[in-house]
User: Which sequence fits this backbone?
């Protein structure tokens, strides 16, 4: 009861920042736990399946997670998150019974690498690139949005790639962190800004509405404490792509996750 009552992050906190593991109650639904971690950290990497360890597993792929189980791991799936590996699955306990397990281990954060070496031209379809990065293969979530009514109400046209993002992904967030507004917020309009997304850290992702062509509007990030605005080149989908995979981006998620996804809040 003590192990099943706390929220998941409480269990992970109990394992601490260094390597650690725990056996969980035998009747715990391992798939439900895997799905819960998947909602938080994205698609897992399979390290062990039916007792066979992936031969490509090394320190850069979570090998430290397997150390405490030696040859007793049955099925282990792992996620990268910042400077830590997280894993769940099943392993034999000291009595030889198959038990659910939860484990963490330190992870060396990869050094920044060049990204998009050939993809920063004017002809890149950044929405398609975003679908590739997130593995999105679902039907469009909101294909029938009445943009004419919304733009009339706002008194301005909106960037085409933003409209395609809303139509494609719908209600949710990239990596469960960067929440896509289904219509722009106008609370900063007196500053010349429309807010198209926000984060768990309460940073606001906006456009500076300079000029009559919304596709030329630059992206502005207003920090959660209103102490600074950072200006980025035009392109909403382009901004999100770089935020997901470019370790040098000021608001990168690449140093936290090694896979990226879009969490549909209506489903999750």
Assistant:
């Amino acid at each position: 009861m003590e192990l099943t009552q706390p929220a998941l992050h409480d269990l992970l906190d109990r394992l601490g920042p260094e390597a650690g593991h725990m056996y969980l109650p035998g009747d715990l639904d391992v798939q439900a736990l895997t799905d819960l971690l998947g909602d938080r950290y994205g698609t897992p990497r399979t390290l062990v399946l039916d007792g066979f360890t992936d031969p490509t597993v090394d320190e850069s792929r979570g090998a430290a997670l397997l150390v405490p189980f030696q040859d007793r791991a049955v099925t282990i799936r792992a996620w990268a998150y910042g400077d830590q590996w997280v894993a769940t699955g099943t392993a034999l306990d000291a009595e030889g019974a198959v038990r659910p397990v939860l484990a963490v281990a330190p992870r060396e954060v990869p050094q920044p690498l060049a990204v998009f070496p050939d993809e920063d031209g004017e002809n890149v379809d950044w929405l398609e690139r975003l679908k590739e990065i997130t593995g999105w293969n679902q039907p469009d979530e909101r294909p029938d949005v009445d943009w004419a009514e919304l733009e009339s109400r706002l008194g301005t046209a909106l960037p085409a790639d933003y409209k395609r993002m809303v139509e494609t992904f719908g209600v949710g967030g990239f990596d469960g962190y960067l929440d896509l507004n289904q219509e722009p917020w106008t609370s900063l309009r007196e500053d010349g800004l429309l807010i198209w997304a926000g984060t768990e850290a309460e940073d606001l992702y906006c456009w500076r509405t300079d000029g009559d062509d919304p596709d030329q509007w630059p992206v502005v990030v207003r920090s959660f404490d209103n102490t600074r605005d950072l200006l980025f080149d035009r392109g909403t989908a382009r901004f999100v792509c770089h935020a997901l995979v470019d370790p040098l981006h000021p608001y990168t998620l690449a140093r936290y996750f090694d896979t990226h996804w879009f969490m549909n809040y209506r489903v999750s």
